[in-house]
Design brief:
The structure is a single chain. The protein has about 180 residues and is mainly alpha-helical.
């Protein structure tokens, strides 16, 4: 079960390096296309299949990534414009059960992700090296999180959820 929950492993923070920065920016840049490719040609029944027992459906995963990355974009902007702002957590499980997730086609969230990541990269590409140490405070975790940490987390997050879908496709032979 652990492999199904974390098909690429858990997030491991990395020290700052230009090479790591470019790798994570590449992850952010290409996540919308990779996620879109992962759901290509899936039918309604496949979109409503959970990626693991007791897990979210493919449809919920796609909408969740959009919800999560909208929050990430705002968190970065807050972190760059305020001194250690406390960010607003949200109940991702409850959000995944809201009616829009079941009724709105996933292409809406995929289109949103393409536009959002374009805007987000505009912010990320302008961050100066010292600014990666700026932080936000996550009240549920009770600690500061640097923008560098968050960049890695969200780069991982996109790959993580894309792997949920691609792993499900491989296990079920959905080419």
């Amino acid at each position: 079960m652990e492999d199904l929950r974390y098909p690429i492993g858990k997030y491991e923070p990395q020290p700052f390096s230009e090479k790591q920065l470019q790798a994570w920016l590449t992850d952010i840049r290409f996540l919308p296309q990779h996620l879109e490719n992962s759901v290509l040609n899936l039918d309604a029944a496949q979109l409503d299949a959970p990626y693991r027992p007791d897990g979210w459906t493919v449809r919920q995963v796609v909408h969740h990534v959009a919800d999560s990355h909208i929050n990430a974009f705002i968190r970065f902007k807050l972190g760059l414009t305020e001194d250690k702002p406390t960010i607003k957590p949200y109940d991702e499980v409850a959000w995944a059960k809201l009616p829009d997730v079941a009724s709105i086609p996933i292409n809406v969230s995929l289109t949103l992700l393409h536009a959002l990541h374009n805007r987000w990269l505009g912010v990320l590409n302008g961050i100066k090296p010292a600014e990666w140490h700026r932080a936000v405070v996550h009240p549920e975790h009770g600690r500061e999180m640097t923008l560098w940490y968050l960049l890695g987390l969200y780069a991982w997050h996109g790959r993580h959820h894309t792997a949920h879908i691609t792993s499900l496709r491989e296990r079920n032979g959905w080419s």
